């Protein structure tokens, strides 16, 4: 990735990290008008950054989060004494004569800060697999896939526009957003040879379609979880806390629609 592309990903990650805080803080200070203003500005900025990555830098399918979180356990550097052990040529492993089990030798035991409970081969293999996943180039998108990803990127803006035109109680914003999400996934389903991160992203988007069952106005009219809690044994342990949380969750736009 080029340096400008890395900066775009960094700014996109920052926006996704602070969007809920910005919405709640602005609502507390400037009220509903300020809240919807900051929502529109953040979604507009995110859409511009994602379109630049898609159309200009050919970044392919947009990941969420944009930057993969750092796995600090796998990124721990060797301590000086560990490096001395490795450079001294001591055998790091011992293979049992009868069991053929590979264990770490006592001479090459690392310090407590960098110790892990797998064999050195397992750690090296996991690190190499992770490096390969990180270094895999994005799958090139054709015209159909580019249109599908553009629909996914611009869907929040179109949803906000429809809310302004038809209001929050109308079914039209809900239907428009659902149609755009399903259309994007349908057009992207024909794409072959996706890497592991891209397949995981499409699975995540498919699972997030279940959110439409909990979004207004569908939830207000049809998704009555109280019936499940009262008549299905064992379900109440999950649905009753969820029902207590949903009113607060639905008031935050970036929790509900972001």
TrEMBL record:
Assigned keywords, A-Z: Peroxisome, Peroxisome biogenesis
Pfam families, per the entry: Pex16 (PF08610)
Cellular component GO terms, alphabetical: peroxisomal membrane
Domain of life: Eukaryota
InterPro entries for the chain: Pex16
Basic and acidic residues bias spans: 122-133
UniProt-annotated location(s): Peroxisome membrane
Annotated region described as Disordered, given as residue ranges: 71-141
BP GO terms, sorted: peroxisome organization
Keyword Signal: no
Primary location group: membrane
Polar residues bias (residue ranges): 72-94, 106-116
Family: Belongs to the peroxin-16 family.
Identification of the protein by name: Peroxisomal membrane protein PEX16
């Amino acid at each position: 990735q080029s340096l400008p592309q890395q900066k775009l990903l960094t700014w996109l990650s920052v926006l996704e990290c602070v969007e809920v805080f910005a919405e709640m803080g602005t609502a507390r200070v400037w009220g509903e008008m300020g809240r919807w203003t900051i929502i529109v500005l953040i979604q507009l900025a995110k859409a511009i950054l994602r379109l630049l990555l898609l159309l200009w830098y050919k970044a392919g399918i947009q990941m969420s989060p944009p930057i993969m979180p750092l796995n600090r356990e796998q990124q721990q550097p060797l301590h000086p004494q560990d490096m001395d052990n490795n450079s001294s040529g001591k055998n790091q492993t011992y293979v049992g004569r009868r069991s053929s089990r590979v264990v770490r030798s006592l001479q090459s035991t690392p310090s407590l800060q960098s110790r892990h409970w797998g064999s050195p081969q397992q750690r090296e293999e996991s690190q190499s697999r992770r490096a390969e996943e990180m270094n895999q180039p994005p799958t090139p998108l054709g015209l159909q896939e580019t249109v599908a990803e553009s629909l996914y990127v611009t869907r929040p803006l179109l949803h906000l526009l429809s809310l302004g035109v038809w209001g929050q109680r109308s079914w039209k914003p809900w239907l428009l957003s659902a149609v755009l999400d399903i259309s994007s996934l349908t057009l992207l389903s024909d794409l072959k040879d996706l890497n592991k991160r891209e397949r995981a992203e499409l699975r995540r988007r498919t699972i997030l379609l279940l959110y439409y069952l909990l979004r207004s106005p569908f939830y207000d009219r049809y998704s009555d979880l109280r019936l499940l809690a009262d008549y299905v044994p064992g379900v109440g342990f999950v649905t009753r806390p969820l029902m207590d949380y949903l009113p607060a969750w639905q008031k935050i736009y970036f929790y509900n629609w972001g």
